Amino acid sequence: MAKDKKLVESITSMKEDFAQWYTDVVKKAELIDYASVKGCMIIKPAGYALWENIQKELDRRFKETGVQNVYMPMFIPESLLNKEKDHVEGFAPEVAWVTHGGQSALQERLCVRPTSETLFCDFYKNDIQSYRDLPKVYNQWCSVVRWEKETRPFLRSREFLWQEGHTAHATAQEAQERTEQMLNVYADFCEEVLAIPVVRGQKTEKEKFAGADATYTIEALMHDGKALQSGTSHNFGDGFAKAFGIQYTDQGNQLQYVYQTSWGMSTRIIGAIIMVHGDDSGLVLPPKIAPTQVMIIPIQQQKEGVLAQADQLYETLKGICRVKVDDTQKSPGWKFAEQEMRGIPVRIEIGPKDIEKGQCVLVRRDTREKYVTALEQVPEKLAKLLDTIQQDLFARAKAHRDAHITDAYNYEEFQSVLEKNPGFIRGMWCGSQACEDKIKEDTAATSRCMPFAQEQISDVCVCCGKPAKKLVFWGKAY
Amino acid sequence: MAKDKKLVESITSMKEDFAQWYTDVVKKAELIDYASVKGCMIIKPAGYALWENIQKELDRRFKETGVQNVYMPMFIPESLLNKEKDHVEGFAPEVAWVTHGGQSALQERLCVRPTSETLFCDFYKNDIQSYRDLPKVYNQWCSVVRWEKETRPFLRSREFLWQEGHTAHATAQEAQERTEQMLNVYADFCEEVLAIPVVRGQKTEKEKFAGADATYTIEALMHDGKALQSGTSHNFGDGFAKAFGIQYTDQGNQLQYVYQTSWGMSTRIIGAIIMVHGDDSGLVLPPKIAPTQVMIIPIQQQKEGVLAQADQLYETLKGICRVKVDDTQKSPGWKFAEQEMRGIPVRIEIGPKDIEKGQCVLVRRDTREKYVTALEQVPEKLAKLLDTIQQDLFARAKAHRDAHITDAYNYEEFQSVLEKNPGFIRGMWCGSQACEDKIKEDTAATSRCMPFAQEQISDVCVCCGKPAKKLVFWGKAY
Predict the structure, then answer these.
(1) What is the least distance, in Å, from the CA of A385 to any CA of chain B?
(2) Residue A49 and residue B33: Cβ atoms within 8 Å?
(3) Which end of chain A has fewer CB atoms within 10 angstroms, the N or the C?
(4) Which residues, numbered 148 to 177 in chain B, qualify as contacts with chain A under a Cβ-Cβ cut-off of 8 Å?
(5) d(CA A414, CA A462)
(6) Confidence class of residue A87 from pLDDT cuts 50, 70 and 90?
């Protein structure tokens, strides 16, 4: 058992050092490894399987709204990146530059895409001629590069995987509707599939995307009380269209600029899954996203009939859930620790005594509750249990999130809340960037969003005391 | 009708100029567009949907053999690329180099991966310790970059999409088995799904992959008689393991080097689909890979009941095939031309007269045969028809391929065949690279492969007349 315990004991506890706990989990659950290029990550099978499930589910939801997938080149000529002033200011400081192809210096250097607005605009400029060509609702799954100084697996790495949707519309209203629609797709996905409750809202001017008219965001709260921006959707108005000259002929034969949006979700969301649901034994995966939902672990598997019964259970269950049998030569205790570390929602223990009684034991990963279950009732019981776990994870995350939302009415309260109950602070805001800057300077908290569900909890700005315009969710963030 | 014809007439005929026909088809069928970076392509929805279907089907077949997906960084430090001598010589001349991150010059320049053997080796070196860690059967779906001088859509572009599998095994035999297994996965996929017959064989020393012990290939014949290397599988032996120091402790507690393989298939295969099945009206897609298998085209759709009947047909069929209704405001003739250009395997024409008679007309894209079919019989008839088309496309491609395989017994015959019946030439080979070099110099043909199905069709080399060792398939190639 000494060996069995080692796997678990080697994780730092969340309370002791949350950042180290996170690093331990991503490594011990075998989600990633570090690469020879600083700040880049190797996504291992357990991590990539999570991403595949995220892709499958999001892609299906995208396509239901009419999205078509495409693929743009990974390189952006410098002159193209420079076309939209705000955009280039936002991204140029953190891009990787290709200067040589083979033995020759390039005539113009190319950046590796940090995001692809400029490429889509350059394409739309030629591809869109008439109102009949609209809307364009394109998306791509790819990797992007941002030359960050400080990096952390999934949360901030120099290369990450994501999808980026880029749309063009005939009217400002249609663009706004699409922007909101995609934010809602993200929010529903997070809540229904990842069991992560989110706050939907709009970013302030200071926090919006470089080149956007308006940025909308979903913000989730991690276990340590820090916020994580989990998906964003941008309305560009006709700003990019004017910078790139994307025009169409309308039904009245007049030239008009298009209205554009973009929206993205990345491997960062895997960080949210870890930090919302995980515990001191490792990952806890919501059943809907778990690559393996059930691990059957035979006890005393060397005894006659045990492996056969485990395999038979596997055959019964494989049509109703993603199930595996761990028939390796490790001890049951070691297998339990591994299943827990990897966050597999349910394990089924089955040994000679169980088989004698025609039963097995279902164990929930999240609560560790055990259910002795007659073999013939396992399929029904298991299907319900997976459902229950999914719902309970969401309810637990929501209760935790709600317990860490505090209203603050003045600056003293604001500052003390950050110490006493780290999480989201609801506070009114006058609308000036000076207050955002001061808050960040003093407390490291930022405006996470102006929630769609606005309330007037006070008449004055939580920072300066001047008349308030908006309710803002504030918080420290990843 | 003038407008209807334009779409079709604007394609160059295959006979007149095959290369131009190809370029016309990829553009007019809206598979790709050219990008602002020379030699890169924009894969449009119709092209990307093909790639998604290829991915889905290949990925399923991979996973059935135990493959796990991962993701490696896109950058390779120069020192890492340099570790295996043959490999770096093969790739260094054609890579893109990143020299700056943000505002700063990098201490060591990074290349954008042209292939990822070196990254996987660097990872395996740490990840593999014991025989218990073997085999590793990993794959990634990603884009790679090779700074080619001459480029053509899908066939040769500076960036392309592919999958690359990289495996590590305890024994040479296991590595050899995996190499052959994956070649067979590719071959079966091409024949069963893409309806493209392939020759399976081994590359000569001259043509093998940089750093491999042995390269296996599947070679397909395009409509113009040129060969296309359609997928490759490499056995590295322990060469990379020795260069990178990838060792494991075996069951007898001895340190051993691992044996490795890699294998890849890319968006190039879309070029093969086009050039094997296409005709002067555009694409012809095998039903199993076609994103849309059936297009319902209403005739006189403004008349009452026509669109309703088309929609009802759609509802009936959507569970058994990938079907759409073209209810745009274009003329039926225009819609027919579009459906043909895009290679949609079957169209269903339905107008007021058909409805009166309780029928519709099924039209095959490949042969243009028409089948007047009672509405209630459409599902059954259509399912069979899609099957038949799939089989017929394979049979037709195979007949064409076989008609363009010619045996040559001496150099005079060899040279004249290339003029008279361009295609594969079967010719014996002495095994010397000098003969390969001479043949390439004189005729531009290369050794495509030494087929697994060896025959001794003559005792002497088709080039030099010295004793022959191997039967080789020769041909001009893309």
Answers:
(1) 28
(2) no
(3) N
(4) 158-159, 161
(5) 7
(6) confident
| DSSP secondary structure letter of residue B12 | P
| Chain A (281-320) residues lying within 8 Å, Cβ to Cβ, of chain B | none
Q: How many CA atoms lie within 13 A of B378 on its CB side?
A: 29
Q: Give the tokens for residue B272.
A: 């093969």
Q: What is the ipTM of this complex?
A: 0.96
Q: How far apart are the first and last CA of chain A?
A: 37
Question: Which residue has tokens 């952390």?
Answer: A152
In this predicted structure, what is the pLDDT of residue A1?
37
In contact, A293 and A196? CB cutoff 8 Å: no
Mean pLDDT throughout B200-227?
A: 96
Specify which residues B467 forms β-bridges with: B460
Q: Where are the beta strands (DSSP E) in B47-158?
A: 68-69, 75-77, 96-101, 104-112, 136-145
Q: Report the alpha-carbon distance of residue A416 to residue A439 in Å, rounded.
A: 13
Is A98–B93 a contact, with Cβ atoms under 8 angstroms apart? no
Helix axes A172-192, A45-64, angle to 10 degrees: 140
CA angle B65, B205, B453 (to 5 degrees): 60
Phi, psi of A21 (to 5 degrees): -55, -45
- Above 50 in pLDDT, residue A112? yes
Among the partner residues A36, A43, A127, nearest to B77 by beta-carbon distance: A36
Q: Calculate helix-pair angle for B433-443, B411-420, nearest 10 degrees.
A: 40
Best A72, A83, A162 residue to mutate vs chain B (most B CBs within 10 Å): A72
d(CA A330, CA A262): 49
* Distance, CA of A57 to chain centre: 13
A385 phi/psi in degrees, rounded to 5: -65, -40
CA distance B95 to B76: 10
Q: A163: which strand partners?
A: A141, A265
Say yes or no to pLDDT of B41 above 80. Answer: yes
Letter string b/e over residues B62-76, b meaning 16 or more CB atoms within 10 A of that residue's CB: beeeebebbbbbbbb
Q: Which of A94, A99, A145 sits opposite B97 (nearest CB)?
A: A99
Q: What is the pLDDT of residue A86?
A: 86
B97, B116, B124, B162: best to mutate for the A interface, most A CBs within 10 A: B97
Name the DSSP class of B13.
P
Tokens of B276: 């094997």
> B10 Cβ partners below 8 Å, 6+ apart?
B24, B28
CA distance A246 to A169: 11
Neighbours of B92 (CB within 10 A): 17
3 state DSSP class of A67:
coil
Stated pTM of the model? 0.96
Q: What phi-psi label fits residue B253: left (phi over 0), alpha (psi between -120 and 50 degrees) or beta? A: left
Task: Describe chain A by its helix, strand, coil percentages, rounded to 5.
Answer: 40, 30, 35
Q: Is A126 on the interface with B (CB under 8 A)?
A: yes
Both structure tokens of B87: 């490999």
* Cα gap B472→B478, rounded to integer Å: 18
Quote the tokens at residue B194: 């893409």
User: What does the mean pLDDT of chain A come to?
Assistant: 96
Residues in B touching A112 (Cβ below 8 Å): 74, 98, 112
C-alpha to C-alpha distances, B86 to A172, B90, B212, B232, nearest whole angstrom: 56, 6, 9, 18
C-alpha span between A44 and A146 (Å, rounded): 21
Distance of CA A55 to the CA centre of its chain: 11
Q: Provide mean pLDDT across the span A280-295.
A: 98
Report CA A241 to chain centroid distance, whole Å.
Answer: 29
Mind listing the pLDDT tens digit for each residue in A377-414?
A: 999 999 999 999 999 999 999 999 999 999 999 999 99
Which chain A residues contact residue B70 at CB under 8 A?
Answer: 42-45, 48
- State the best of B32, B54, B72 to mutate against chain A, taking most chain A CBs within 10 Å: B72
